[in-house]
From TrEMBL:
This is Pre-rRNA-processing protein Ipi1 N-terminal domain-containing protein. Residues 486-616 form the TEX10-like TPR repeats domain. InterPro entries: ARM-like, ARM-type_fold, Ipi1_N, TPR_TEX10. Gene3D superfamilies: Leucine-rich Repeat Variant. Residues 1-36 are annotated as: Disordered. Its main location: nucleus. It comes from Salix udensis. GO terms for cellular component: nucleus. Residues 1-13 have a biased composition (Polar residues). Residues 145-207 form the Pre-rRNA-processing protein Ipi1 N-terminal domain. The lineage of its organism: Eukaryota, Viridiplantae, Streptophyta, Embryophyta, Tracheophyta.
Length: 860
């Protein structure tokens, strides 16, 4: 029993390590405590970043920044970041200009903070960004609200402790006024006070002239907006007196409301400007550099604008008179004008010499404006007259060292003062000024600005001061200069040609004004002839500038002709050549006839010259195309048949208004017959006949010799009409109406002279009665050639006569002549002696058949 119990306990005991039997050739499994080094991975999908999604579809700069980010960077503590932000905005706006209009207010509100930025480069980049990108991008919109957002910051910068920021603020204000001029009048008192304050701080005058130049340039721009006496005088020439004040309303809406304030501020500013100018005088003794010159010139321009504004107030009768009193004038006379003329201590270069002349001219402008209201000392006045004479005489010479543009600018500035000077001076100075002015006008180039300035001065000297020039009848020199100036105008027209139409229009307008005052001279017609046309060798015509000018200039030139005391035949011939040119507008053609006919009625054209002019138009006007019925659409578009028909009617009307028709007919009779005998085209022959019947009567006034001459011409004319106009029985068609137009003058002549019809029938019969060579010898026949063509045309003419009621009655009297024509045609058709082709014999046979209907109707 013990043995059994012990074996059971041994069976229940646990096994620590179980022995696994392995088969040979099998791979051993890995141990249970082995670390698994195998790595498994899956793709990780993350959502988009929020920054990238926000920039989708937005305008970005080169560095990928949005407009919002760039605006935020403009407030960064680092100056380089602020500058880069401004440059990034410039790049963004150039690529996306629509962003400016969409966000202009937000942009200005943020950028205005940089006007007073401590860093110079940031301020300069802001200025360039506003000038070149932002403000031009808003130009189409109302810029008032945009620019007004900057004004508080600009004025704040003008009072900054740093002088550079203060000076830069004036530059920003100048830019604002440039794009929105009415802005100045909204802040006139404050801005003028700031200009006065900054100019009193003269410690930087000789240290930083470039910045001072910018300040003064801005002041000039502001003062230039003020209404001046120069503008009023200019408007007074073209605008009625009651509208002069209204001319300033769009640009200066509040100037008159703030007039007293501006006057007060300018009165304080003028002495400051004078002192500022005096501080620059020591520079003149050494070398006048460019920046000092610009500063001095801007000071003088500011003073000139202030003076002209004061004068404007006096002219407009403002209740508070401007300070044109003795105390104010003494400031300018004693401190500024007394240093005139400015001159260097030693010989200077060409450029420096021109700078001194320009400064002296600017001082002269101030003196001229001021001298209208004060009486300057005679010695000082003499100095200015001497300088004006020097500029006109010496600077107008072509061999001057100074450049052409500089020389013209110098002279053009003084030219407007010449008329007033001439009216004020007495004695020898009047002739000296007129001599210098005349020399300047003659020597300057036709297209120069000096020429235009001289033209305006000539009008004022000769027209406005006509009575003044006539006061001293013993002084013939003044009249000589006046005549010389007027005679130069036609020369100038020819020299200008068609290259400068605006200048030509000014000259023509001046000529018209002179003509209305009876100040045009007959010896000018030779030069005016070159303006229209001249005859060249071998009958060629050289057309002048007239044809190539605009219609309004052509109108002015034609109206000038009315005021010549006597138009000679050579000038009329020159004008007639222009009328015959196809380039002339038909409207202008009829306008020329109208003006010249009015001139004839005024007794300024001889009757023979006027008749020759009208007959020349009717006989030599080229009708295109020559065919009565144009064959192509192009010919129809370029056809001037209708124009010539109107011309014929106008010529007939003018001739019938010239006086007694019987007397005019005597003059015209020989001239018209001579022109028709030259075998002109069909339209011109018709025009001659229509002129003849317009002045003729029943019974005819034609002489026996004229009737004989006209019979040969008229028979050839009728044959040509029949050859050119197709045969149609319906008179309502265009062919029937055209045939009626060409035949009617002949039929009217037949009605007025039976003998003429008899002679025409005899001439037609003689053409057929002869041999073939005789048939072709019709010297006056232009279009119909060949036996059959002429015979067919003669038969057509006879049939047309038979259809006309009046001519038909006359044909009964000349049955024998018609029978003679019929027998002659039959004889020619049956003749064996004359070699006539079969085709032509057939045409002649058809003509005979057509003629039988006429002869039978006559005998019935």
């Amino acid at each position: 029993m013990a043995k059994t119990k012990g074996s059971s306990k041994q069976q229940n005991r646990g096994i620590d390590f179980k022995k696994i039997k392995r088969k040979i050739g099998r791979k051993l499994p890995p141990p249970k405590n082995t670390t698994n080094t195998e790595i498994k991975s899956k793709a990780i999908v993350l959502p988009e970043q929020s920054v990238v999604s926000e920039k989708a579809g937005l305008a970005l700069s080169k560095k990928g920044l949005t407009l919002k980010e760039l605006l935020q960077h403009t407030s960064h503590h680092n100056a380089k970041v602020r500058k880069d932000a401004l440059m990034g905005m410039k790049d963004l706006f150039l690529k996306h200009p629509e962003e400016i209009k969409l966000h202009r207010y937000a942009v200005i509100e943020k950028l205005r903070e940089r006007i007073s930025d401590d860093d110079k480069t940031v301020r300069e980049n802001l200025y360039q960004l506003l000038k070149s990108v932002i403000l031009p991008g808003c130009k189409e919109d109302n810029q008032g609200p945009v620019i007004s957002l900057m004004m508080a910051y600009i004025f704040n910068a003008m009072t900054h402790l740093a002088i550079d920021i203060r000076l830069m603020a004036f530059k920003f204000f100048d830019l604002a006024v440039e794009y929105h001029p009415p802005l100045f009048f909204s802040y006139a008192e404050k801005i003028l006070q700031n200009y006065e304050d900054i100019l009193r701080k003269n410690q930087f005058y000789l240290e930083d002239k470039g910045k001072l130049k910018n300040v003064l340039a801005g002041l000039v721009r502001c003062l230039l907006l003020l209404p001046s006496s120069k503008e009023v005088n200019l408007l007074a020439k073209n605008v009625p007196e009651q509208k002069i004040l209204q001319a300033f309303e769009p640009d200066v809406p509040t100037v008159f409301a703030e007039y007293s304030v501006i006057i007060k501020k300018l009165k304080n500013l003028v002495p400051v400007l004078v002192n500022c100018f005096q501080d620059f005088l020591p520079v003149l003794h050494d070398s006048l550099d460019a920046q000092s010159f610009d500063c001095m010139l801007n000071i003088l321009r500011s003073l000139d604008h202030a003076v002209t504004f004061f004068i404007h107030g006096v002219q407009q009768g403002h209740p508070e008179p401007p300070p044109l009193d003795q105390s104010f004038s003494s400031v300018l006379l004693k401190k500024l004008l007394v240093v005139f003329p400015l001159s260097p201590m030693h010989h200077l270069s060409e450029k420096d010499d021109d700078r001194y002349v320009i400064l002296n001219i600017a001082i002269t402008e101030i003196f001229m404006h001021l001298s209208e209201w004060i009486c300057p000392p005679a010695v000082l006045f003499e100095k200015f007259l001497t300088f004006v004479e020097y500029v006109l005489v010496e600077k107008s010479c072509s061999n001057m060292r100074s450049g052409k543009a500089v020389r013209e600018k110098q002279i053009s500035t003084l030219i407007p003062f010449i008329p007033k000077l001439v009216s004020r001076v007495i004695g020898n100075w009047k002739n000296r000024l007129l001599k210098a002015f005349t020399k300047t006008f003659q020597d300057c180039s036709p297209e120069s600005s000096v020429k235009l300035a001289c033209l305006a001065a000539i009008e004022e000297i000769i027209i406005s001061q006509e009575d003044l020039l006539c006061t001293d009848v013993n002084d013939s020199g003044q009249f000589d200069y006046k005549i010389t100036l007027v005679r130069e105008l036609p020369k100038l027209l020819v020299l200008l040609g068609n290259r400068h139409p605006s200048s030509s229009k000014v000259v023509l307008h001046l000529l018209l004004r002179l003509g209305q005052r009876s100040l045009l001279y007959d010896d000018m017609q030779g030069l005016l002839k070159e303006f229209y046309s001249t005859d060249q060798d071998k009958g060629n015509i050289c057309y002048g500038p007239f044809l190539r000018l605009a219609r309004d200039s052509q109108e002015l030139s034609i109206c000038c002709l009315y005021y010549l005391s006597q138009l000679d035949s050579t000038l009329l011939k020159s004008i007639a050549s222009c009328c015959l040119c196809q380039e002339l507008d038909p409207f202008m053609l009829f306008r020329i006839i109208e003006v010249l006919h009015s001139t004839y009625k005024a007794g300024r054209i001889q009757i023979s010259d006027h008749i020759n002019f009208l007959i020349t138009l009717a006989s030599r006007y080229k009708v295109c195309p020559e065919n009565i019925f144009p064959g192509t659409d192009r010919d129809k578009k370029t056809s001037n048949h209708a124009t010539f028909k109107s011309l014929t009617s106008v010529v007939c009307s003018c001739l019938s208004q010239m006086g007694d028709n019987s007397l005019v007919f005597v003059i015209l009779e020989k001239v018209i017959l001579e022109q028709i005998s030259l075998k002109p085209p069909l339209d011109n022959s018709c025009a001659m006949l229509r002129i003849l019947i317009a002045l003729d009567s029943k019974p005819t006034r034609l002489s026996e010799q004229s009737i004989c001459t006209l019979s040969n011409v008229l028979s050839a004319y009728l044959i040509d009409v029949a050859h050119c106009v197709p045969e149609y029985n319906d008179e309502s068609t265009i062919h029937g109406q055209t045939r009626r137009y060409y035949l009617l003058p002949s039929f009217i002549l037949f009605d007025r002279s039976y003998k003429l019809l008899n002679l025409v029938l005899n001439v037609m019969g003689s053409l057929i009665n002869g041999r073939s060579s005789s048939l072709l010898s019709g010297d006056h026949i232009r279009y119909a050639k060949g036996n059959s063509s002429i015979i067919n045309a003669i038969v057509s003419v006879l049939l047309w006569m038979q259809r006309d009621a009046k001519v038909q009655q006359i044909l009964y009297l000349y049955k024998e002549e018609i029978d003679h024509i019929s027998r002659s045609i039959c004889s020619l058709q049956s003749s064996e002696e004359i070699n006539v082709p079969i085709e032509e014999r057939h045409i002649i046979k058809c003509a005979i058949d057509r003629l039988k209907t006429l002869t039978s109707s006559l005998y019935q």
